[in-house]
Amino acid sequence: MNRKKFLSSLVVAGAAVPGLAYTTLPELDLSPAPILPKYLRPGDTIGITCPAGYITEEQIQPARLQMLDWGFSVQVGDTVGKKDFTFGGTDEERARDFQAMLDDPKIKAIMCARGGYGFVRIIDQLDFTKFTAQPKWIIGFSDVTVLHCHLNRNYGIASIHSKMCNSFPDDWNKAEPIQVDTILSIKQALMGEKLKYPIAIHPQNKLGRAEGTLVGGNLKTIETLAGSKSDLRTTDKILFVEDTGEYLYSIDRMFWNLKRTGKLKDLAGLIVGGFKVKPDDPGEEFGRTVQQIVLEKVQHYKYPVCFDFPVGHQRNNFALKCGVRHRLVVGDNEVSLKEI
User: Fold this and answer.
1) Which residue among 172, 190, 208 closes a domain?
2) Whether residues 83 and 129 fall in one domain
């Protein structure tokens, strides 16, 4: 029997079995197995570059000095100090600078200087061949969610979702304790400490326990990546989301996107971080809170949901290792996220 007839016979045979002809196979999660870059040691070099918004050399100095104090070397990229309207240089300049840091074997980690907007404009220009052969930690959040999602979807390489250079305090001795703790969490992540965060109990949490690979980032960015090469797979994973400067109706629309694209269906757990909401226009009130928006979308799912996790566009924005397995506990007396 030739191949064409053989395949046809399978279709006929399937149609003869009750309930089989119209059965849809579930979408498989084809994301690669997680790969951890090497953790840093004193003397290793961290590169600073601007793949998105611009920043001046003066503005990165607190971060550069702090990383030097931690015992690392720092290499400042060509895009620091460059400005092309809102961007840290032209698309070509930003892509070239980021590519150089991906390929340079002396650089063991790359810190994105700031977020803003722009990574999606260069992500498809980057060649990850040398990077995948010798992975390194890439650090950032907000617009850098493009890279976190791209790495997880295509290469399974872990990365660090955290504050960037524009969030380091000018005077370490005068910084608030929460600011110090969040910055120190970057060092702890880079040096291989297993991170664990106790979380304040929220009355609208959905209780439960979950284990899975941690993925996520900025909700708007995750939404805009749907259907692209960087689209995030979420099956059996713990998803965390945060956002800023969005109306409640827009947040509702983004969560509908997560639901309709299947990203909420087979999660292991959901973490909702900080959401800075734009006030509704008078007479155009949406009438629902962020918690109500989320719970409406996940009401038929059994996984745990945690609200007000300390991640997002806020001072209590702790480092998280994307692409690394974690345990989420959401209980009456304990809420925590722990790297395992």
Assistant:
1) 190
2) yes
Tokens of 162: 């955290």
Whole-number pLDDT of residue 29: 55
Domain hosting 152: range is 45-190
Cα separation, 221 vs 284, in Å, equals 25
Other CB atoms within a 10 A radius of the CB of residue 93 amount to 18
Q: Are residues 177 and 200 in the same domain?
A: no
Q: How far is the CA of 241 from the CAs of 98, 185, 250, 269, in angstroms? A: 25, 19, 14, 12
Tokens of 59: 């503005």
Secondary-structure percent of the chain, ordered helix, strand, coil, rounded to 5: 35, 20, 45
- Least Cα distance to 214 among 277, 162, 251 occurs for 162
Residues of the chain with pLDDT under 50: 1-27
Closest by Cα among 19, 23, 17, 86 to 51? 86
What is this structure's pTM? 0.91
Which strands sit side by side in the sheet containing 238-246, from one edge to the other?
196-198, 335-339, 325-330, 208-218, 238-246, 269-277, 305-306
Contacts of 197 (CB under 8 A, 6+ apart): 309, 310, 318, 336, 337, 338
Q: Are residues 67 and 172 in the same domain?
A: yes
In the structure encoding, which two tokens stand for residue 164, read together?
Answer: 């960037």
DSSP letters, 43-70, are T-EEEEE-SSB---HHHHHHHHHHHHHT
Q: What is the pLDDT of residues 166-203, one digit of tens each?
A: 999 999 999 999 999 999 999 999 999 999 999 999 99
271 forms bridges with which residues in the sheet? Answer: 240, 306
Residue given tokens 């994301």 in the structure block: 31
Predicted local distance difference test score (pLDDT) of residue 33: 74
Q: Write b or e for each residue in 63-81: b if 16 or more Cβ atoms lie within 10 A of its Cβ, otherwise e.
A: bbebbeebebebbbbbbbb
Do the beta carbons of residue 322 and residue 214 sit within 8 Å?
yes
Q: Max alpha carbon distance in the chain (Å)?
A: 79
Structure tokens at 184: 């120190």
Contacts of 128 (CB under 8 A, 6+ apart): 102, 154, 155
- 203 and 142 inside one domain: no
Kindly state the tokens that stand for 8: 């046809």
